[in-house]
Structure formats: structure tokens, C-alpha cells
Design brief:
Largest sheet: 7 strands, mixed
Radius of gyration: 18 Å
InterPro entries: ClpP/crotonase-like_dom_sf, ECH/Chromodomain_protein, Enoyl-CoA_hydra/iso
CATH superfamily: 2-enoyl-CoA Hydratase, Chain A, domain 1
Strand order of the largest sheet: 1-2-3-4-6-8-11
Strand content: 15-25%
Protein name: Enoyl-CoA hydratase-related protein
Order of helices and strands: EEEHEEHHHEEHEEHHEHEHHHH
Distance between the termini: 51 Å
Number of domains: 1
Number of helices: 12
Number of strands: 11
CATH topology: 2-enoyl-CoA Hydratase, Chain A, domain 1
CATH class: Alpha Beta
Shape: globular
CATH architecture: Alpha-Beta Complex
Subcellular location: Peroxisome
Keywords: Isomerase, Peroxisome
């Protein structure tokens, strides 16, 4: 069965549900609608007895370019911090859905992964990446804080010093570097990515869902409190920084097509 939504494609085969983010012209950047649709799709898959595994990927040359900066700029202009403070905002709905998802979640990173496009990897159980994919956590270059417990989950995946560089520097990380540090599990030739990821997802999907759920719960339940606490810390920091001098300069530079200049900002900005 294949169905098509405007921004999220859903395909079912062999008890694997493939969710394809479909905003290729925007590099699959997450606007409120995509956050909400992916959250709904995860809830639906978790409750569907015909689905054992979910495979997440992107359409086009990007996995996801992160949060839609056009929408972020509009949010800042309106004077609100909806994303960090409102549970019903699509961003928080997606994070809640990722935490609650009880079946194996596999990612096939087909290209660029920025921001939430990297943060998602902290919630998946297996991550495959195409050779040539690149990763970036641009929080400091946007003048904001980490998100969705990434300050806790990414160090668990890659170790403290690798995570410190990824989160502090806003520098690009190659697919090979991501694989070496443990951010992704397997590297694949681009033309083999979906075949390889689907094959592994299908092998898992042939196993009893009750056991798959039990294994995942046993692995993730012990870190639930730490994830919740990390989200609270990050949301508080994000709310303090959003719309501040550094974030305003970053968004203005993005709109004007120039490199931001943070050197003249006061300490603490």
C-alpha cells in the first residue's frame, strides 16, 4: 500500500512502514505542519497491528535541513516562543511521539542532516547513511540552545568530546566521521541506501512485535527521566535565547544571505 500526503509519504510492505519526508524544495526542513504530520504518523504506526517497524527517510538531496528558518523568523517577529513553551506545537508533539514510539525505528539518511535532522538520530534504533551525507548541529550559529534532549542523547551516542565538537562548533560532519564516532550505524552507497535499510527493517519486522517492544522498552525506559530533564533544561535555555541578540543577528544574516557576525555582541548574548 502506498499513500501520498503533501509533505509525508507513507508506504507499507512486509510489516515495514516507510515514512518519507517530502519537502524536497525546502530540503525537508521542518515547518509546523511537517512536525505535526510526522508525529501523527508515528502514533498511527505504533498503534497499527500490521506495522512492526518504521523506516524514516527524506525525498531529494536532504534527510532534513532542520527547523524551517523562515517560520522561526516569523515566530520571533510575532514575539512568541511557541516551540519551546507550547506542548501543542508540532515540534513538541514530534518529540513526544519519538519518546513514546515503542517499535523499532530505523533511519535512512539520504543526504544533508541539520538540527532536528541530526537530533532525530538520538531516538532511532538503527541509522543508515548514504556516503556523501553530511551532518550539522547549527545551534550556536543560530544563537540558540540544543533541542529535544540532544544535549543528553548525542553524547550517549558519540561520547563527550565528539558531542562537544558537534554541538558547540556548528561545523559540518562527514558521513565517514559520523560513522566513526557512532552517530550512524552503517554507511551505504547512495544507490544502495534504501535497499540496505529496508532489508534490515524487514528482517526485524519478521520477528514478534511483542519481543521487539520489550527489547526497546528495556533499552529506553532507564533513560526516560534524564531525557525529560534534558528537554526541560533545553526548553528553558531556548526560550531565553530565542529572539535575543545572537538569534536575531543569525536570522537577519540568513534573510540577507550573509554570514552572521557575533563578535560585537556582549557576553551572555
Amino acid at each position: 500500500m502506498t499513500t501520498h500526503a503533501d509533505i509525508l509519504e507513507v508506504h507499507d510492505a512486509d510489516r515495514v512502514r516507510t515514512l518519507t519526508m517530502n519537502r524536497p524544495d525546502a530540503l525537508n526542513a521542518f515547518n509546523g505542519a511537517l512536525y505535526t504530520e510526522l508525529a501523527r504518523a508515528l502514533h498511527a504506526a505504533d498503534g497499527d497491528p500490521d506495522v512492526a517497524v518504521v523506516l524514516l527517510t527524506g525525498r531529494g538531496r536532504a534527510f532534513s535541513a532542520g527547523t524551517d528558518l523562515v517560520e522561526m523568523a516569523e515566530l520571533v517577529a510575532d514575539g512568541g516562543d511557541t516551540r519551546a513553551s507550547t506542548e501543542e506545537h508540532g515540534f513538541n508533539l514530534l518529540v513526544d511521539a519519538l519518546i513514546a514510539f515503542g517499535k523499532p525505528l530505523v533511519a535512512a539518511v539520504n543526504g544533508l542532516g541539520l538540527g532536528i535532522g541530526v537530533t532525530l538520530l538520538g531516538y532511532v534504533d538503527l541509522a543508515f547513511a548514504a556516503q556523501g551525507a553530511r551532518f550539522k548541529c547549527p545551534f550556536t550559529s543560530l544563537g540558540v540552545a540544543p533541542e529535544a534532549a540532544s544535549s543528553y542523547l548525542i553524547p550517549r551516542l558519540v561520547g563527550h568530546q565528539n558531542a562537544a565538537w558537534v554541538l558547540l562548533s556548528s561545523e559540518w560532519i562527514s558521513a565517514e566521521e559520523a560513522h566513526e564516532m557512532g552517530l550512524v550505524w552503517r554507511l551505504c552507497a547512495p544507490e544502495e541506501l534504501m535497499t540496505e535499510a529496508t532489508a534490515h527493517a524487514t528482517r526485524l519486522a519478521a520477528l514478534p512485535v511483542s519481543s521487539l517492544r520489550a527489547v526497546k522498552k528495556a533499552m529506553t525506559e532507564p533513560i526516560g527521566r534524564q531525557v525529560a530533564e534534558a528537554r526541560q533544561r533545553e526548553n528553558r535555555m531556548f526560550a531565553e535565547l530565542l529572539g535575543g541578540p545572537a538569534n536575531s543577528e543569525a536570522l537577519a544574516a540568513f534573510a540577507e544571505g550573509r554570514k552572521p557576525d557575533f563578535t560585537s555582541l556582549p557576553d551572555g548574548a
